[in-house]
Write a structure and sequence with these properties.
The protein has about 400 residues and is an alpha/beta fold. The protein has helices spanning about 1-20, 55-75, 95-110, 120-135, 160-175, 190-200, 225-230, 245-255, 300-310, 320-335, 345-355, and strands spanning about 45-50, 85-90, 115, 135-140, 155, 180-185, 210-215, 235-240, 260-265, 285-290, 360-365, 365-370, 375-380, 380-385, 390-394. The strands form three sheets. It has a seven-stranded mixed β-sheet, sandwiched between helices. A five-stranded parallel β-sheet has the order 2-1-3-4-5, sandwiched between helices. Strands 11-12-13 form a three-stranded antiparallel β-sheet, with helices on one face. Mean pLDDT is about 90; it is low at about 1-35.
Length: about 400
């Protein structure tokens, strides 16, 4: 009798612990945000991957939060064809290997489609896994063409070549500079891809690229040599196709040298105003091309910004907007393909892949967005200028 009671208690405790972890019928731990749980076969399971910690966390947290707002809106409005969305976001710290681990965790959870990863290298790594599984993948901000090398992956953001070309055209058409220096990271595909396209398009524009200087991941703290070469060449603009962390150092070091050119960058610059202990006055006048402007006056943007500020106590950046759009892109593709949650991952992926080239989406980051079969998005960038510590559309 004592043995039987002991066994009963042990089983009861085990059952309680499993219930506390939470799971859906597809198995796996379920650590979703509140209100996103669902039954397998009755709910669409959308996973997300990005850096919630580490030096790129400002991107990952924005993507996680922007997508959550879209999920909540859709669920509150009745879901997609009557089905609710379950949403789970996993941290990859901006690392390819950890992104694969996150992907496997989400598969165990029951993921049927992936929003992510946030940065390029993890996006490329995960793309091979989604291709093997036949899963549709939409990356909100992985901008390299390598991200869409497989036909099951689509982008919300501009490609690197597109950013470089459009930036060069904007500089030329607006007459912003005569001599331009380019400082880029030769070990980062995002940075080098934009730089290469910018320099190529500059041949067609009324300005000259007088200096093209690279740095590496091991030398991304001291930019005095590159800045000195830019100043010696008479560059009145420095184009920075890099992320905001390095850009903040460049602005500080240029200021200490007494070098005050016009600085211009792409969407990776979004976040520079939030760098800890950074004097934002050093970014005054900086220009960047971006798909999203938080102070735009259209109703969709205003509602999103208001909701984001109420929830997270900060103004959303373009990464949050990309993710918000990504969820609505999934919705449009699901409705177009008329898929249901009880279908297999591969069946859903095949149907959604075809639907992606048939849909048109009006979002925060573009009106009338369409997609090529190769995964790239068609939309027009907008230029913003930093004025009094805020982004202002030009």
């Amino acid at each position: 009798m004592k043995k039987a009671v002991s066994m009963f208690l042990a089983l009861a405790l085990m059952a309680a612990s499993l219930t506390a972890c939470g799971s859906n019928e597809n198995g796996g731990n379920n650590q979703q945000s509140a209100g996103t749980e669902g039954e397998a076969g009755e709910t669409f399971f959308i996973g997300g991957i990005g850096p919630e910690t580490g030096e790129n966390s400002i991107y990952g947290l924005a993507v996680r939060n922007g997508a959550q707002i879209a999920v909540d809106e859709i669920n509150e409005a009745g879901g997609i064809n009557g089905y609710q969305i379950a949403y789970d976001f996993q941290d990859d710290e901006g690392d390819a290997e950890k992104a694969i681990n996150a992907y496997n965790t989400l598969k165990d959870w029951g993921m049927q489609m992936l929003m992510g990863a946030v940065t390029t290298t993890p996006s490329v790594a995960v793309a091979d896994k989604t291709a093997e599984d036949g899963m549709l993948q939409i990356t909100p901000s992985g901008s390299s063409l390598d991200c869409v090398k497989n036909d099951n992956v689509f982008q919300v953001c501009f490609t690197d070549p597109n950013q470089g070309i459009e930036s060069a055209k904007y500089v030329g058409e607006a007459g912003l500079a005569q001599k331009v220096a380019v400082i880029y990271n030769s070990q980062d595909s995002y940075s080098s891809g934009i730089a290469e396209a910018f320099i190529a398009e500059a041949e067609n524009q009324p300005f000259e690229v007088v200096v093209s200087e690279a740095f590496t991941n091991d030398t991304k703290t001291d930019f005095t040599v590159q800045l000195q070469k830019a100043r010696d060449a008479g560059a009145d603009m420095v184009f920075l196709p890099i992320y905001y962390q390095e850009a903040s150092l460049i602005l500080q070091q240029a200021d200490s040298m007494g070098y005050d050119p016009l600085f211009c960058g792409g969407d990776g610059m979004d976040g520079i105003l939030g760098v800890d202990n950074f004097d934002t006055s050093l970014a005054e006048g900086m220009i960047l091309l971006t798909p999203f402007i938080a102070d735009a006056e259209d109703e969709l943007t205003q509602n999103f910004v208001t909701e984001y500020q109420e929830r997270y106590d900060e103004v959303p950046n373009q990464f949050a907007a990309d993710a918000y759009d990504a969820i609505y892109i999934f919705k449009a593709a699901i409705e177009q393909a008329n898929v249901t949650p009880d279908m297999s991952v591969e069946e859903i992926g095949t149907a959604l892949k075809a639907a992606m080239t048939e849909i048109t989406v009006d979002g925060l980051t573009g009106e009338g967005m369409t997609w090529e079969a190769g995964g790239t998005v068609n939309k027009t960038p907008r230029a913003v200028k930093i004025v009094d510590g805020a982004y202002q559309e030009m």
